[in-house]
């Protein structure tokens, strides 16, 4: 077996894990869910659930991963006793399947980002018909750009952790942040923005326990931090033993929430500005006309108000979004690939191409049956699979793994662990509180439990 890779520094891990966390989920998924679930109430519930649930589960993944230093299936098996091994296999493979299915829809949206970026380039060159084609929904456009996105993703993963994943994750994030902030400043000069901010920032507290809102916020909290498939477990396995894990995890979680929050500050007002400019967003029943296409409608409408500069801004924005999507998609593909490599003896290169091509085939099936499959795969993986696997991870961290062994793992990199607030709260918390909350939200959404 080839020597395992490791992130070269703390900064490299934080950037790679944030690169995984920050992606289409923050800038495409989060604003759509805010807009479909009544604004501020969703934002509030999402933030609470991230602190209450997502951060503790992120820690469970990172700690198990760094301890076992293997792919997800092997990691879970390593901390199991003989009676829990079957559960370890089940959980590991369910995670691998979920990661692959998430990539299969994610890559389609990422392909749209590439197409819109190229669309701006085409506009700059005066190729207006080509731009029109690139930015309109069509079978061929979707097929071409989803394939292109896979080539990018597979190419990077094939090169391995240090040279592939790290290099890409460490650069362009700051640029994306600066661009979003600049766009927020710009939008504040536009008609309608104030109404958008009011909707975004003023929660209607009577809605926060709404079952649909809750389960959607739960899924979003897991998705946004890349939880519940093993991505963070694999990334954890590449962290050096000298790092303080709770701090690393907190940094990643805060960056992720921060970017999602900023994206909302941009996209929600952009909806109202677009409306003020005559773009229809809600239908008569008050539902979003095209929720998947939300940011592909309202942001281009915003860029248009900037005249020529808007074409450049659009080019920059969609290029950065493509990169943000790549640093996330590589972390999804890494889950099956690291398993194929470490447990089935494949070389990284052939594992990346074989697994990547199989998942591309799944994407192509979705593209051909977009209306039926796209939303279905998203719901199955993000609303149900991720939280359920997350709970299984909690069960492994809280019930299966020996507490002493876990403490020893945490003490590497933070020798004083036993006296920290983290150690006083977290072990019991993942053992009991996290599973109970997730279960309660599930039962509530199926009407089995009322609160
Ligand atoms: N968190 C990423 C985003 O917000 C997506 C992502 C990357 C992901 N890896 C994952 C989601 C693993 C679920 C599981 O865009």
If you had to describe this structure to a student in words, what would you say it looks like?
The protein is mostly helical and 451 residues long. The protein has one domain: Amino acid/polyamine transporter I (Up-down Bundle), CATH 1.20.1740. Helices cover 77% and strands 0% of the residues. The protein is built from 19 helices and no strands. Helix 5 runs antiparallel to helix 6, helix 5 (85-124) crosses helix 16 and helix 7 packs across helix 8. The mean pLDDT is 93. The structure holds tryptophan (TRP). Tryptophan (TRP) is lined by residues 20-21, 23-26, 99, 102, 223-224, 226, 229, 231, 328, 331-332.
What overall geometry do the principal axes of the alpha carbons give?
globular
* Number of E strands: 0
| Level-2 CATH architecture | Up-down Bundle
Mean pLDDT: 93
Radius of gyration: 21 Å
Order of helices and strands: HHHHHHHHHHHHHHHHHHH
Distance between the termini: 52 Å
The SS-based structural class is mainly alpha
Strand content: under 5%
């Amino acid at each position: 077996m080839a020597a395992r890779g490791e992130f070269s520094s703390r900064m490299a891990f934080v950037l790679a894990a944030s690169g995984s966390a920050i992606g289409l989920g923050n800038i495409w998924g989060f604003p759509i869910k805010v807009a479909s679930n009544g604004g501020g109430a969703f934002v509030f519930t999402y933030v609470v659930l991230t602190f209450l649930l997502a951060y503790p589960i992120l820690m469970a993944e990172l700690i198990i991963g760094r301890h076992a230093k293997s792919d997800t299936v092997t990691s879970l098996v390593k901390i199991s006793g003989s009676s829990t091994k079957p559960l370890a296999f089940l959980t590991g493979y369910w995670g691998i399947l979920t990661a692959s299915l998430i990539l299969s829809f994610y890559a389609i949206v990422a392909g749209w980002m590439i197409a819109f970026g190229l669309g701006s380039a085409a506009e700059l060159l005066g190729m207006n018909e080509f731009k029109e084609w690139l930015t309109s929904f069509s079978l061929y456009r979707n097929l071409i750009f989803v394939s292109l996105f896979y080539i990018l993703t597979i190419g990077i993963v094939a090169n391995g952790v240090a040279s592939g994943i790290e290099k890409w994750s460490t650069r362009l994030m700051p640029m994306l942040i600066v661009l979003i902030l600049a766009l927020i400043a710009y939008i504040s000069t536009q008609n309608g923005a104030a109404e958008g901010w009011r909707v975004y920032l003023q929660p209607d507290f009577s809605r926060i326990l709404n079952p649909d809102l809750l389960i959607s916020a739960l899924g979003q909290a897991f998705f946004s931090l890349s939880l519940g498939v093993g991505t963070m477990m694999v990334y954890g396995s590449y962290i050096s033993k000298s790092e303080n894990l709770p701090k690393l995890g907190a940094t990643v979680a805060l960056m992720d929430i921060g970017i999602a929050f900023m994206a909302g500050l941009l996209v929600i007002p952009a909806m109202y500005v677009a409306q003020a400019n005559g773009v229809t967003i809600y239908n008569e029943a008050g539902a979003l006309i095209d929720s998947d296409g939300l940011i592909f409608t309202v942001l281009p409408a915003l860029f248009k108000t900037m005249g020529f500069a808007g074409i450049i801004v659009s080019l920059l924005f969609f290029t950065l979004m493509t990169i943000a999507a790549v640093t996330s998609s590589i972390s999804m593909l890494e889950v099956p690939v690291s398993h194929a490599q470490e447990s089935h003896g494949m070389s990284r290169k052939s594992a990346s191409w074989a697994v990547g091509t199989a998942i591309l085939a799944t994407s192509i099936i979705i593209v051909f049956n977009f209306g039926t499959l796209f939303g279905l795969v998203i719901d199955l993986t993000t609303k149900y699979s991720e939280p359920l696997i997350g709970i299984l991870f909690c069960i492994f961290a809280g019930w299966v793994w020996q507490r002493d062994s876990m403490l020893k793992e945490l003490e590497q990199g933070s020798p004083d662990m036993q006296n920290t607030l983290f150690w006083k709260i977290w072990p019991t918390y993942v053992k009991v509180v996290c599973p109970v909350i997730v279960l309660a939200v599930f039962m509530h959404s199926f009407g089995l439990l009322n609160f």
